[in-house]
Amino acid sequence: MPRTGESSGSSRSGDRYARELERHLDWLDTFSSTALGVLAAASGIYTYLGVRTLLDNPGLWTTFAALSYSIAVSVGIFVFWSYMMRLLPAVRSAASRVGLLLTMALGCVAIVAMSSWLNAAALAGSAAVETHMANTVQHYQASLERAHSNAVAGQSLARDVARVRQSFDDLSQQEAGGTLSGFSGRGAVFRVLTQKGAELQALEAQLAGVAEPIETTFADGNAILSRMRGTSVEPGPLEDRTVRFSEDAVQLAGLITQLRQLNPAPLVARAAKDLSDAVVLPELDGSTAEMRAGQSSTINSVLSLVEQRASTLTSAAAEVEALPQPDEAVYAPISAADAVIVYAGNFVPAWAGAISIDLLPAVLVFIIMVVQAAIRRGRGDHDSDERMTVGELRAALAAADQLRRADSAAEAPRALTKPDS
Question: Span 130-335: which CATH code?
Fold first, then answer.
């Protein structure tokens, strides 16, 4: 007997606990649909703003298309979460619950795909495009500095050329004094030396001539870079800034290409090859066979020296040409919706807000699931009919009254026809 009383008391306590939770759910249910509608409408508004960034052509039909899409998203979100909030907490079997959870996960993925990324575009689209422009500026700056560095390295070959040219000038002066061939004068050996010295002097003049264009082009590129940096952060309509940024990017790409063409390293390599290959041998002008033999021997030595100096210049030019080349700098305009995906890591708060506004009802679904489970545990296996609203009580009393009237009407004829005893 005590056990039965304890069980009965526990059952009554569980019913009271369940009824208390149900009263809370009834009160919360009065505004849950309104709150869900507000969340769906807010998501639809940001979805509309995100869609407008993808549609380039302004006009009535564009506005209608964006509005239709955003309304469809709002309705879809509201209906989906309404289904989940009603059905998922109500099912009891594990299979049904797992099936609805998988359905909810699939629906969440669909909501993120059709709405959340557009919400993120509306929240951080402009900032993402500005980030893209800032990264592009850094890319162009690295390419410009690399091209300028390579061009300056090529122009510095002028020192190597001057050193080789000075060696030939010194040898020609020695030959004029008779030190090389042993016969003083400006004969065949002198003419070979001055010939190569003149070629190197012309090359040196060409190298000196590219110094000013290199620095001018580099200064123009830096000026454009400064203008691009200002365009990426200045206030104003994003579309206009993007157009101006694209124009500057095209101009800067041309300057980078020009710097690559101004690099004189290939010119030095070709000139070094011609220095050893193209030799015009003068006629030996010695008055005696001994003098001509000395001139021939000296010219052969000079030609060997020319090959060595040409090899030195070729190696120096090859080192410059082997330097890392600037990357191909190309600016690709990007929409706000695409920018927030490409630079998603830079806008985690915006993505979190965009996804939360769509998936926040999932938290409500889990809350209702927990409360419904607690109600079932408190009530136990039996069903309680004690939870009735005033309307349900009135309907039950009216139905009972109608049944009594029907019974009375049926019994009256039988009472009249009953024979007297």
Answer: 1.20.1260
Is residue 217 within 8 Å of residue 258, measured between CB atoms? yes
- Which amino acid would we find at residue 270? R
- Written as six digits, the tokens of 151 are 């061009």
Query: Do 317 and 272 contact (CB within 8 A), yes or no?
Result: yes
Query: CA–CA separation, 86 vs 100, rounded Å?
Result: 11
Residues contacting residue 29 through CB under 8 Å, at least 6 positions apart: none
pTM equals 0.67
Q: Which has more confidence, 166 or 258?
A: 258
The span from the first CA to the last CA of the chain, in angstroms, equals 51
* Tokens (6 digits) for 311: 């090899």
Tell me what pLDDT residue 108 has: 92
Which two structure tokens, joined as six digits, stand for 302?
Answer: 């000079």
Distance in angstroms (rounded) separating the CA atoms of residues 369 and 222: 62
CB 71 within 8 A of CB 389: no
Instruction: Return the amino acid letter for 71.
Output: I
Residue 181: pLDDT above 60? no
Report CA dihedral (186, 188, 192, 193) to the nearest 10 degrees.
-40
Distance, in Å, from the CA atom of 47 to the CA atom of 322, rounded to the nearest integer, reads: 51
Residue 357's nearest CA partner among 80, 66, 44, 29 is 44
Give the Cα separation of 313 and 315 in Å (integer).
Answer: 5
* Cβ pair 327, 108 in contact under 8 A: no
**What single-letter amino acid sits at 217?**
T
The answer for residues whose C-beta is within 8 angstroms of residue 347's C-beta and 6 or more apart is 120, 123, 124, 127, 128, 340
Q: Could you tell me the two tokens for 250? A: 């095209």
Report the SS3 class of residue 93.
Answer: coil
Residue 78 pLDDT grade (very low, low, confident, very high; cuts 50, 70, 90): very high
Higher confidence at residue 283 or residue 170?
170
Residue 172 and residue 176: Cα distance in Å, rounded? 6
Q: What are the pLDDT digits (tens) for 312-354?
A: 777 887 888 888 888 777 788 888 878 888 888 888 888 888 8
Domains of the chain by residue range: 2-125+347-404, 130-335
Quick one: tokens of 131?
Answer: 């980030």
pLDDT of residue 339: 85
**Residue 168 carries which side chain, given as an amino acid letter?**
F
For residue 106, what pLDDT is reported?
A: 94
